[in-house]
């Protein structure tokens, strides 16, 4: 979901004098051919772009600083709307093909384009928003300039335009700004654009709009990373608007809409948004169905993961809906490291649940999660191994006594030495050592098992090389070693020199 979208819209018209005749546009170009001899280049460029759009060849357009400077002057408010519209279109086209030509004048260009995006004259608003859309694909500093010059407010005004194409282009530009960085996203969220987009979703004509893909993409960029400040009513309206799109035939649209649901479920507002997802009729069932769709599986996993990260009751709703067999199937078949990490993250959150939820997780009818966690924990990917470590630690900490015996009798403990390495997150090491302490409190007979799996050697490494590990965890590791020595003394007598 990262990345920005440069606007490469191809207009359905041919740029020739024959086509322009009688439309009034011919007068525009004749006028500026008379005033500025350099503007003849524009007519030639239009013909070149027409060829570009027809045969798809990437043609390099040679530009001069004089030409760029000329059009920047035409863009100023002292010229007529006709001149400004011509200049806006020039920069709109230029920014698609050659951004380096405008580097030196970008600040003035941004100011003028933002001014023009407020002017409802011909296609000037659309072209100005289009140019800003592509400027927002530049390095971060350019997005900061757009924001500093009140570009978001201007684009918001433009988004209120009744023209669907202008509105869509303005929202697209705002989406590119939001996707640049967290501070830009926050600046966009402070505007009212999300409310505007949600209102568009609920209009009857939206389902037939050719612009809905870009609008939903922009919405997901605004929501990306979680949305702690979205009012509950707005969250519910967004979920209701997104639900029909989860059935859309457009794969990209369906995927972006699913990401939108995932981000809404990650709103950090004490589970209220998660409850809204669960209470929206048909939404959870559709998310589970989207796990079978390769175009939406990643987004659906994130949405389900955010729900499972809620409280025990919310997690139970997902389990009752039948998520475990689907997770088991995906984890068994997936070869993508990022997808496996997401899957094991969900498993680790289920393993942090109640006794009955841990029992359900390790019910063989739902999949062989022990074997899959062992494979994940012994794999090369650090992220997947870390999540497997959390799953094992959570399960050993929260399982019933009977299930603890079952887990220790399985191969699950094989994961432990692969996680108790000095390059592992210290927090995870501390959690896993604590979980093992709980296991031995319940039954000390597992100390020999720890030795056979190499866990005791991991404890020794913590004492030797674990200066970065907290003192309590080091004390626990030392206690394990001492208990093992005492057990050997009881069985074989004290060691003699």
From TrEMBL:
It comes from the Eukaryota. The keyword Cytoplasm does not apply. Keywords: Protein transport, Transport. InterPro entries: ARM-like, ARM-type_fold, Armadillo. Coiled coil: none annotated. Pfam families: Arm. The keyword Protein transport applies. One of its GO terms (biological process) is protein transport. PANTHER family: IMPORTIN ALPHA. Belongs to the importin alpha family. This is Importin subunit alpha. It comes from Parascaris univalens (Nematode worm).
